[in-house]
């Protein structure tokens, strides 16, 4: 594996992990009732996932141009990490929205 490929894979892992962490922070903020902070964390998660997706897209484009890459456990881990984080963002946004609705209706203390 080339150093450039390895660095790209690590960027996917880094930004995917950052995105997932922001999602967990968003849920924690919503649980406390700070919905502005929760929404900011969701926005930050989205930015991180966009960064990760740009690196993923570069890998896909290179392969489409004929630069074949042997899959490695590290690459599979990066893809798994990113997809998990993307799912987490969708779920976190829903959870924040639910907490906010419950708060409006007097259900969260």
Automatic annotation (TrEMBL):
Q: Which PROSITE patterns match?
A: PTS_EIIA_TYPE_3
Q: Which InterPro entries match?
A: PTS_IIA_lac/cel, PTS_IIA_lac/cel_sf
Locations listed in the record:
Cytoplasm
Q: What is its main location?
A: cytoplasm
Describe cofactor binding as the record notes it: Binds 1 Mg(2+) ion per trimer.
**Which SUPFAM superfamilies does this UniProt record tie to the protein?**
Enzyme IIa from lactose specific PTS, IIa-lac
Entry binding sites for Mg(2+): 80
A Pfam family this chain is assigned to: PTS_IIA
Q: Which UniProt keywords apply?
A: Cytoplasm, Magnesium, Metal-binding, Phosphotransferase system, Sugar transport, Transferase, Transport
Q: Which GO terms describe its molecular function?
A: metal ion binding; transferase activity
Keyword presence, Nucleotidyltransferase: no
State its cofactor: Mg(2+)
Q: Name one GO biological process term.
A: phosphoenolpyruvate-dependent sugar phosphotransferase system
Q: Does the keyword Kinase apply?
A: no
List modified residues, type Phosphohistidine: 77
Q: Which residues form the active site?
A: 77 (tele-phosphohistidine intermediate)
Query: What name is this protein filed under?
Result: Phosphotransferase system (PTS) lichenan-specific enzyme IIA component
Source organism of the structure: Bacillus licheniformis (strain ATCC 14580 / DSM 13 / JCM 2505 / CCUG 7422 / NBRC 12200 / NCIMB 9375 / NCTC 10341 / NRRL NRS-1264 / Gibson 46)
